[in-house]
Amino acid sequence: MKTALIFGITGQDGSFLAELLLAKGYDVHGVIRRASTFNTDRIDAVYRDPHENRATMHLHYGDMSDGTGLRRVIAHVQPDEIYNLAAQSHVRVSFDQAEYTADVVATGTLRALEAVRDHMKAGGKPVRFYQAGSSEMFGAAPPPQNESTPFYPRSPYAVSKVAAHWYAVNYREAYGLFVSNGILFNHESERRGETFVTRKITRALGRIKLGMQDKLYLGNLDARRDWGYAGDYVEAMWMMLQASRPDDYVVATGESHSVLEFLELAGEYSGLDWKKHVETDARYFRPSEVDHLRGDSSKARRELGWSPKIGFPALVRLMVDYDLDLAKQERTLAEAGHRVVFRGSAHA
Ligand code: NAP
Ligand code: GDP
Question: Distance from the CA of 87 to the center of ligand 1, in angstroms?
Answer without folding.
Answer: 4
